[in-house]
Write a structure and sequence with these properties.
This protein is mainly α. The chain has one domain. 53% of the residues lie in helices and 9% in strands. The protein has a two-stranded parallel ribbon.
């Protein structure tokens, strides 16, 4: 039963993420992570290669999605085992 609740949460988060992505694409919406990345790019402080470790990443639909396209390598770790089990 707990797994079903986690799956429902992931579906809700997925829908929210898609709404954010549409806003980013068509309405020039900037997430807080977008602003951090843009600031680092303007100041030429964004490292190359960009290697990221997302701690407590849950399912990767929040912060990790905002900068994943910039990463040469990215890992998402989650302490809550149930999130890992949903995808296996």
């Amino acid at each position: 039963m707990k797994k079903l609740g986690i799956v429902k949460q992931i579906v809700k988060d997925f829908i929210k993420r898609k709404i954010k992505d549409v806003g980013r694409r068509y309405a020039n919406l900037k997430t807080p992570m977008d602003i951090v990345v843009l600031t680092l790019q303007v100041q030429k402080l964004l490292p190359k290669p960009l290697i990221a470790l997302e701690l407590f990443g849950m399912h990767g639909l929040w912060l990790a999605s905002d900068y994943a396209h910039l990463c040469d390598y990215q890992e998402i770790w989650e302490i809550e085992l149930i999130y890992a089990k949903v995808f296996t």
